[in-house]
Amino acid sequence: MKKILYLSITALTLSLSACYYDTEEELYPNSFGGNKDTASVTYSATIAPMLAANCTSCHTAGGNSPDLTTYANVFANKDRVKARAVDGNPSPMPSSGLMSLTNRNALAAWIAAGAPKN
Fold this sequence. Notes:
mainly alpha
């Protein structure tokens, strides 16, 4: 009887802690820059390096569409980029999962500002 009780408690403990997907950044955005001042977001200093780190290993000329290696291509596809990389709709990009909240906020702010080439 003790063995069954022990196994039941162990199974319950494992099942309650096994599937937890929240990230600290999403739970505590102020601690991780989630409320970053997006007024200073620029294409050259913020967006291009972010895309290089997260997108252009696949989205290049001759690679997966759209090519995101130039400002002109990013600008032409900004709505698609927002849908996939910020909103995760219809599926998240990068395919490994959405970027950090800070990156998504910066990308969304840049697009909302008209995606300026700055």
